[in-house]
């Protein structure tokens, strides 16, 4: 052990002896100038590295804040960031120049101190950690800690002067870089300085906190953005809630059923419901009624319009252009096998973005009941998003869009009244079935449904109301009392205005019926 320690001591002594130099050389005028230049070059390296981090860490909100504070450097920073490619080329060019100059200058210093033979590898040992710590890590850490203040106080003015000074060289470098990039990856397709969605949302949150946007305007913005990512399957009225008219039905019966349905657009099928042959429009049928036409001698072909169909994968926001281009306000939604899955209308699209536009008492007041704390009776077709807005239960399902669909998936069989499913502290009980479809469920969180008192007759009014307003009633026998009044109004205001406030079918949002 003593021998090992002795050898280590001798080794370190030789290393120290090797790096020892004549300190008198440092007092020579030429050496003092070189050392001062070295400090300036290292400071320049730190400046360019920190400038890159500080400037490109600024968000648009930071720039807006500087402008609101009337900071004199705000316009300078905005001007620099307005051309990011020119700025990054200027920063990188300056950083490379000072780093190379610092390495060359340090090599000259080491040649004087240690001679030419060993100066090369000593320069490598000295400059790598020096540039890493002084020229990269430390200045960038300082800059990123407060990029707004650092950019305004230290970076803005010197960087603007540097960009102006190096502008001719920037043009040459950019042309060469563009040609190389084009040769390697092809022509550029994206424009510079595009506002990203997350940046826009951050801006919305900021201006909302400052009171520039109210809650309604903010919700509208979010809905508009969601519309670009949401498929129409989330908005359409499902097939089970659609009313159909058979092409082979006598025309007098067609008119009777159309009036009973009370929908401005009704699809017409031949043989089976996946074979759509056209749409009937309310304005055409009502003109016949108001003009007292002889419908006994007419056929459905006289008033039928060609069918309009869209795929299920179409986005909600795309439907605006689609409806305008085709000059229609409703379309059938087809799946990949050509079957009809639902019905999408202009009103359904507008309701998704603007909320319920029907006015009056919210339909949710009729279609859900809070039985107890965290216990709700709701329609099976209520969408999960609407149910979560109502209860905050946080039920998520990657495959189902309605609360009844969630119960159906967990049961994994045809549901029956009284069936229950339990998951994640949630209980769902099937209260009512409409053939194979779950019509109404009771949902509880953190509550045992067996502990509740059964008062099934409490909701007779709501249940009957729900049945009367279900869309899939092809054999409806009663016409709503208001139909005669509507016909009179339409007669006064022209029949073609019948569809002013609705398009027939729409997805049930929080219990609203189409």
Q: What's the order of the H and E elements? A: HHHHHHHHHEEHEEHEHEEHHEEHHEEEHH
The separation of the N and C termini measures: 92 Å
Sheet-strand content, in percent, reads 5-15%
Give the count of helical stretches: 18
Please summarize what this structure is:
With 514 residues, the chain is α+β, with helices and mostly antiparallel strands. It has helices at 2-19, 29-56, 60-68, 74-81, 84-114, 116-145, 147-185, 197-209, 215-227, 251-261, 282-290, 318-326, 346-354, 364-367, 384-391, 403-411, 460-468, 483-493, and strands spanning 237-238, 245-246, 265-270, 272-281, 309-311, 330-334, 340-345, 369-372, 375-379, 420-423, 426-434, 437-445.
Question: Can you give a write-up of this model?
Answer:
Among the domains are: 11-185, no CATH class; 197-227; 364-476, Uridine Diphospho-n-acetylenolpyruvylglucosamine Reductase, domain 3 (2-Layer Sandwich). With 514 residues, it is an alpha+beta fold. The chain has 18 helices and twelve strands. Strand 5, helix 12 and strand 6 form a beta-alpha-beta unit. The model is unreliable at 359-366 and 456-514 (pLDDT under 50). The strands form three sheets. A five-stranded antiparallel beta sheet has the order 8-9-12-11-10. The termini are far apart. The chain has helices spanning 2-19, 29-56, 60-68, 74-81, 84-114, 116-145, 147-185, 197-209, 215-227, 251-261, 282-290, 318-326, 346-354, 364-367, 384-391, 403-411, 460-468, 483-493; strands spanning 237-238, 245-246, 265-270, 272-281, 309-311, 330-334, 340-345, 369-372, 375-379, 420-423, 426-434, 437-445. Helix 2 runs parallel beside helix 6 and helix 8 (197-209) packs antiparallel against helix 9 (215-227).
């Amino acid at each position: 052990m003593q021998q090992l320690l002795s050898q280590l001591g001798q080794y370190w002594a030789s290393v120290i002896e090797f790096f020892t130099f004549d300190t008198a050389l440092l007092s020579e005028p030429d050496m003092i100038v070189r050392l001062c230049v070295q400090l300036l070059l290292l400071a320049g390296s730190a400046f360019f590295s920190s400038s890159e981090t500080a400037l490109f860490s600024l968000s648009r909100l930071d720039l807006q804040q500087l402008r609101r504070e009337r900071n004199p450097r705000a316009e300078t920073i905005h001007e620099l960031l307005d051309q990011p490619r020119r700025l990054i080329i200027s920063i990188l060019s300056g950083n490379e120049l000072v780093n190379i100059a610092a390495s060359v200058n340090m090599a000259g210093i080491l040649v004087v101190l240690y001679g030419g033979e060993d100066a090369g590898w000593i320069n490598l040992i000295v400059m790598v950690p020096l540039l890493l710590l002084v020229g990269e890590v430390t200045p960038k850490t300082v800059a990123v800690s407060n990029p707004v203040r650092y950019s305004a106080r230290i970076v803005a003015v010197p960087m603007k002067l540097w960009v102006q000074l190096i502008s001719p060289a920037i043009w040459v470098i950019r042309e060469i870089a563009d040609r190389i990039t084009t040769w390697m990856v092809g022509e550029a397709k994206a424009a510079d300085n595009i506002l990203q969605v997350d940046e826009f949302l951050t801006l919305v949150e900021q201006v909302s906190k400052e009171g520039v946007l109210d809650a309604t305007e903010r919700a509208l913005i979010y809905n508009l953005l969601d519309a670009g990512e949401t498929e129409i399957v989330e908005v359409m009225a499902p097939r089970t809630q659609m009313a159909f008219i058979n092409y082979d039905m006598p025309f007098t019966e067609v008119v009777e059923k159309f009036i009973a349905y009370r929908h401005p657009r009704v699809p017409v099928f031949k043989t089976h419901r996946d074979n759509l042959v056209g749409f009937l429009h309310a304005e055409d049928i009502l003109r016949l009624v108001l003009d007292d036409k002889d419908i006994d001698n007419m056929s459905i072909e006289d008033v039928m319009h060609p069918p309009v169909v869209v795929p299920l994968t179409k986005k909600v926001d795309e439907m605006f252009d689609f409806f305008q281009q085709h000059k229609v306000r409703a379309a059938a939604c087809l799946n990949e096998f050509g079957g009809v899955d639902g019905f999408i209308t202009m009103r359904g699209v507008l309701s998704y973005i603007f909320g319920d536009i029907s006015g009056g008492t919210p339909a949710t007041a009729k279609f859900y009941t809070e039985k107890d704390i965290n216990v709700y009776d709701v329609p099976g077709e209520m969408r999960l998003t609407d149910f979560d807005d109502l209860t905050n239960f946080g039920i998520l399902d990657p495959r189902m869009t309605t609360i009844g669909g969630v119960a159906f998936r967990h049961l994994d069989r045809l549901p029956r009244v009284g069936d229950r499913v339990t998951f994640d502290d949630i209980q769902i009980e099937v209260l009512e079935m409409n053939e194979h479809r779950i019509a109404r469920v009771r949902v509880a969180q953190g509550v045992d449904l067996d502990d509740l008192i059964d008062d099934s007759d409490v909701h007779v009014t709501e249940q009957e109301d729900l049945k009367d307003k279900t869309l899939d009633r092809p054999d409806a026998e009663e016409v709503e009392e208001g139909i005669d009044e509507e016909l009179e109004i339409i007669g006064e205001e022209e029949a073609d205005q019948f569809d002013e406030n609705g398009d027939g079918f729409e997805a049930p949002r929080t219990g609203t019926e189409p």
